[in-house]
Amino acid sequence: MLQPATMKFLRQLADNNHKQWFDAHRDDYDAARADFEGLTDRMRGLMIPSVPELAEQQTKHCIFRIYRDVRFSKDKTPYKAHFSAYFSKGGRKYEGAGYYLHIEPGKSFAAGGLWMPSSTLLKSVRQEIDYNYEAFRGMVEGKTFKKLFGQLAQDKLKTLPKGYDADNPAIEYLKYKSFIAEHSFTDKEVLHKNFTADCHRIFTAMQPLVDFINRSLD
Questions:
Q1: What is the C-alpha separation between 50 and 203, in angstroms, rounded?
Q2: What is the mean pLDDT of residues 21-31?
Q3: Which of 97, 115, 180, 213 is the most buried (most CB within 10 A)?
């Protein structure tokens, strides 16, 4: 289970997001990061049966750095006020679909799918949805999917995607620019002893979407 001290550190970092404070609390950061790495390692272990490639990956390579790239951002705060990790067959930098875990006080969630892919990858996914619309629709409109995730994250074109007509039965899904299922967790759920198992259950429910997308890319 994740330790309360980890969430406390993230809350304090959000209120003191500058180098002087961070340097003064380096030991707290090291402890919090180690705690999150432990959670990530347990999660990676649970997911190996469904993503065998994870067995060859190091846990630390699944975790994103806490340091923000502020070069092209209006927000110049130097640190992320969250911990996050990505699980996929191709590692953290894999361009295909995978599973994302985000731990942040009041804003924790698990997500699965494909976020803002390149035009080439997006074209492949749209083609797969067009060819296998009924299977895709049954998946994302199924009872379990809707109960856990509601619907795919709303990131859509306002116009028709190139090459598709308005009367295409799948047109509303073909307008999507990302294909993401998301499930939120309360702080109480994140700190519960069963959180790793609960998060794995959510990732398992996302697997049909992740597999569908990756088949289209393969």
A1: 10
A2: 98
A3: 97
pLDDT of residue 82: 98
pTM: 0.95
How many degrees, rounded to 5, is the angle at CA 200 between CA 180 and CA 191? 105
Write out the chain in H/E/C secondary structure: CCCHHHHHHHHHHHHCCCHHHHHHCHHHHHHHHHHHHHHHHHHHHHHCCCCHHHHHCCHHHHECCCECCCCCCCCCCCECCCEEEEECCCCCCCCCCEEEEEECCCCEEEEEEECCCCHHHHHHHHHHHHHCHHHHHHHHCCHHHHHHHCCCCCCECCCCCCCCCCCCCCHHHHCECCEEEEEEECHHHHCCCCHHHHHHHHHHHHHHHHHHHHHHHC
pLDDT per residue as tens digits for the range 169-178: 999 999 999 9
Phi (first) and psi of residue 185, to 5 degrees: -125, 140
Spatial distance between the Cα atoms of 105 and 187, rounded to a whole number of angstroms: 6
Q: Please choose, from the candidates 153, 155, 144, 115, the residue with its C-alpha nearest in 3D space to the C-alpha of residue 202.
A: 144
pLDDT, the chain, mean: 96
Residue indicated by tokens 């060819």 = 131
d(CA 206, CA 195): 17
